[in-house]
Design a protein that fits this description.
With 262 residues, the chain is of the alpha+beta class. The protein folds into 2 domains: 204 residues, Bira Bifunctional Protein, Domain 2 (BirA Bifunctional Protein, domain 2); 49 residues, SH3 type barrels (Roll). 27% of the residues lie in helices and 28% in strands. The strands form 2 sheets. A 7-stranded mixed β-sheet has the order 1-2-3-7-6-5-4, with helices on both faces. A 5-stranded antiparallel β-sheet has the order 11-10-9-8-12, with no helix packed on it. The radius of gyration is 18 Å and the shape is globular. The protein starts with a helix and ends in a 5-residue tail after the last strand. The structure holds biotin.
């Protein structure tokens, strides 16, 4: 914890740190802290999670002491519809920090995954907390495969990677963490000043989906189209086969790539 504090270059994010060698889920702890009034920027970080949560009710696998597993408390004053911007902002920060610290070409797969060479290296799970119908906090949980070997886990063999696998050397979790927090703080300031457009442009430059044919599956329906851009809320705009634009709200959707038949 002291080491994290020493490396910090932020004024808010990570100034209050709650470290756990092992815990159920950092998102769960961060939500409890937020509900008890924990302040914006609080960092909950663990070396191991016994019930790490992923999106779409999946579990997040991570062996002890190898990776980054942390959650941050945000208290955005904006409307609920803007809260998805936070997830995008964090995925941009993660991708940029990986690029800066390792030189690897990290790309963002909408809504909130970070990929290297076609394999997932990081995932983000945002959870919203309300009181009397008003948004009170957003907890953004970030998991990043830093020094693990996902191939030891049969289900992940073909779909996940880690920075160590890509670089063939260990990477400092501390340097990455402080880099991500610095980026998040800077981007959050931009967003609060109403400059989300600049972030959107940076995000689109690193988009893995832009221009690709994608399939979006949710509980209600399945849609296909060419991914064109993201809008001001951070929702995906696709062009369907009739040439119409459709706005995809992130929620509980999964996005897969559709092979083009030539
Ligand atoms: C996903 O890609 O499905 C999102 C994965 C999010 C995992 C992180 S690890 C830290 C935080 N605590 C959790 O229980 N989940 C998030």
């Amino acid at each position: 914890m002291e080491a994290i504090k020493e490396g910090l270059r932020t004024v808010c994010f990570g100034q209050d740190i709650r470290y756990f060698p092992s815990t159920e889920s950092t998102n769960l702890i961060a939500k409890k802290i937020a509900e008890q009034g924990g302040k914006e920027g609080t960092l909950v970080i663990a070396d191991y999670q016994t019930r790490g949560k992923g999106r779409l009710a999946r579990t997040w696998w991570s062996p002890p002491g190898a990776n980054l597993l942390f959650s941050l408390i945000f208290r955005p004053s904006s409307e609920v519809t803007h809260s998805f911007r936070l997830t995008l902002l964090c995925s941009l920060a993660v991708a940029q920090a990986i690029r800066q610290e390792t030189g690897l070409e990290a790309l963002i797969k909408w809504p909130n995954d970070v990929y290297i060479k076609g394999k997932k290296v990081s995932g983000i799970l945002s959870e919203l907390g309300f009181k009397d119908g008003t948004l009170e906090y957003v907890v953004v949980g970030i998991g990043m495969n830093v020094n693990c070997d996902p191939s030891t886990h049969p289900e992940l063999l073909d779909i996940a990677t880690s920075l160590r696998i890509e670089l063939k050397r260990n990477v400092s979790r501390l340097t990455l963490l402080t880099g991500i927090l610095k980026m998040i703080e800077g981007y959050y300031e931009l967003m609060k000043r109403g400059e989300f457009g600049a972030l959107r442009e940076s995000w689109e430059l690193l988009s893995l989906v832009k221009g690709k044919r994608v399939r979006i599956v949710s509980l209600e329906c399945s849609k296909e189209g060419i991914a064109e851009s993201i809008d001001d809320e951070g929702f995906l705009i696709i062009r369907n086969s009739s040439g119409e634009r459709e706005r995809i709200v992130s929620g509980d959707v999964s996005l897969t790539f559709v092979e083009e038949v030539v």
